[in-house]
């Protein structure tokens, strides 16, 4: 298990409008960028085991390609059916052009 923020990716490699898959502390994440803010959401749909990073991104919303549920990458909450459960999200910080993610505890929304 990790302790505190860990390096996830250089900020320059994470573009808006697409999800960037990374693994931090053994947890697969999809990074979603909106301006200078980056959100980290677990890279697995809560409806079935599908990587969210393979879906479309618009703003901070990421869509599961299998059945079309969209999730708010900021809160992890599903925005439409069929998914009803949230996906864990994690705190991010940007330091010297590097994205750090703390995967030790999911954000409580
Ligand atoms: S597997 Fe993601 S919405 Fe069904």
Please provide a written account of the structure:
- By secondary structure, the chain is mostly beta strands.
- Helices cover about 0% and strands about 40% of the residues.
- It contains no helices and nine strands.
- The strands form two sheets. It has a six-stranded antiparallel β-sheet, with no helix packed on it.
- A hairpin with a 6-residue loop joins β6 (about 60-65) and β7 (about 70).
- It is globular and about 40 Å long.
- It starts with 5 loop residues before the first strand and ends in a 7-residue tail after the last strand.
- The structure holds FE2/S2 (inorganic) cluster (FES).
- The site of FE2/S2 (inorganic) cluster has 10 residues, from loops.
| Assigned CATH architecture | 3-layer Sandwich
Strand portion? 35-45%
Q: Which segments are poorly predicted (pLDDT under 50) over 5 or more consecutive residues?
A: none
Predict the CATH topology: Rieske Iron-sulfur Protein
Structural features:
109 residues; mainly beta; Rieske Iron-sulfur Protein; three-stranded antiparallel β-sheet; 9 strands; binds FE2/S2 (inorganic) cluster
What's the gist of this structure?
The chain has no helices and nine strands. It is 0% helix and 41% strand.
Helix and strand arrangement:
Blueprint (H helix, E strand, L loop, with lengths): L5 E5 L8 E6 L2 E8 L2 E6 L14 E2 L2 E3 L6 E3 L16 E7 L2 E5 L7
Antiparallel strand pairs: 1-9, 2-3, 3-4, 4-8, 5-6, 6-7, 8-9
The structure holds FE2/S2 (inorganic) cluster.
């Amino acid at each position: 298990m990790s302790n505190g923020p860990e390096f996830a990716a250089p900020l320059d490699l994470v573009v808006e409008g697409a999800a960037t898959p990374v693994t931090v502390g053994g947890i697969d994440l999809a990074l979603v960028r909106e301006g200078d803010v980056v959100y980290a959401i677990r890279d697995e749909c809560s409806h079935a085991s599908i990587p969210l990073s393979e879906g479309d991104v618009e703003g901070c919303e990421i869509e599961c390609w299998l059945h079309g549920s969209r999730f708010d990458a900021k809160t992890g909450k599903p925005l439409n059916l069929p998914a009803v459960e949230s996906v864990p999200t994690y705190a991010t910080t940007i330091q010297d052009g590097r994205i750090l993610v703390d995967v030790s505890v999911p954000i409580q929304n």
